[in-house]
Design goal:
- By secondary structure, this protein is of the alpha/beta class.
- The protein is 49% helix and 13% strand.
- It has a single domain, classed as VSR Endonuclease (Endonuclease, Chain A, 3-Layer(aba) Sandwich).
- The chain contains six helices and five strands.
- Strands 1-2-3-4-5 form a five-stranded mixed sheet, sandwiched between helices.
- The protein is globular.
Length: 150
Amino acid sequence: MADTISKEQRSKNMSAIRNKDTKPEIYLRKRLFALGLRYRKNATYIFGCPDIFIPKYKTAIFVNGCYWHRHNGCKYAYHPKSNIVFWEAKFSKNVNRDAVVREHLLSQQIKCLVVWECTVKRMKRATEFETNTIEQILSFLKSDKLYMEL
């Protein structure tokens, strides 16, 4: 199936998508800062350039978009109906890159936390869920676990 909009319009739409300082990322950073956690954002000196890096806990936090990083079973990770071959290749590269980054960080004993976009959206809607999620994050930071997804 061919694309339903022109190449120029598609290009304009895609260029408007940000790769850092997204709304979910800013929301999570504000919550962490309010808890007294200090971090570096988009730390280029850490492999994979995590969205948030907390040096005290040697933890890289990635706030992943469900669509772009293919969150399994999530309603936001739908499949486009046009240009299917391109999108499958694009998504496959993203997922493979995420796996390489995760393995490299874990081999360096850097903890890795992935917070999905749908989790942040749910945090914004439900105070109790937000509190539980923040508690899970704090528990992970203080634990010996090296990897977790929320």
